[in-house]
Write a structure and sequence with these properties.
Helix content: 55-70%
CATH architecture: Orthogonal Bundle
Shape: globular
Distance between the termini: 24 Å
Number of helices: 7
CATH superfamily: Globins
CATH topology: Globin-like
Largest sheet: none
Bound molecules: protoporphyrin IX containing FE
Order of helices and strands: HHHHHHH
Radius of gyration: 14 Å
Length: about 140
């Protein structure tokens, strides 16, 4: 069964991340991953979709990732219910954009020091969630 990204109450995703996943990985590791991801994203053809100041995007994305992995609910506290599909509707995201976005995460996951098992959990989560964001 698919998780419903529009569910306002949904703050973490136990389908993808086992109990203790966040604690084992740590907040800094997740922030590092997101930072590497954006270093690739700004070199990609998706760059114009994002604000000039990519640091804000980095914080929002890391806050969200920390939350879904079972960490503190920074995103909910700062930005409210996730509603990720709705938040992406203003941006024209087709399959080509999704693939490019995923390839930035592929490179970031290849770069970062982390167990293959944990990388797979993150990859599988992104692979499925990213399909919900395709809106064109
Ligand atoms: C399918 C490819 C995707 C593209 C092209 C894309 C693109 C974007 C763009 C252009 C923004 C607005 C700029 C910004 O606020 O940083 C954004 C925001 C965001 N995206 Fe994505 N995104 C994709 C998939 C995802 C996925 C799979 C997730 C998480 C599971 C995600 C999480 C976020 C978050 C947390 C924000 C900030 C929303 C806010 O609070 O304003 N994105 N994305």
């Amino acid at each position: 069964m698919n998780p419903d990204p529009e569910q306002p109450q949904q703050t973490s995703n136990q389908k993808y991340f086992p109990q203790g996943f966040f604690e084992a990985l740590g907040e800094e590791k997740i922030r590092e991953l997101v930072k590497i991801f954006y270093s690739y994203l700004i070199q990609s053809s998706l760059r114009p979709m994002f604000p000039d100041d990519i640091q804000e995007s980095e914080i929002k994305a890391a806050d969200f990732m920390i939350q879904v992995m079972g960490g503190p609910k920074y995103y909910l506290e700062k930005r409210g219910p996730a509603r990720m599909r709705a938040r992406h509707l203003p941006f024209a995201i087709d399959e080509k954009a999704r693939k490019e976005w995923m390839s930035c995460y592929r490179q970031a996951l290849d770069d970062i020091e982390m167990s293959e098992e944990n990388k797979n959990h993150i990859w599988n989560f992104l692979e499925e969630q990213s399909r919900w964001m395709v809106n064109r």
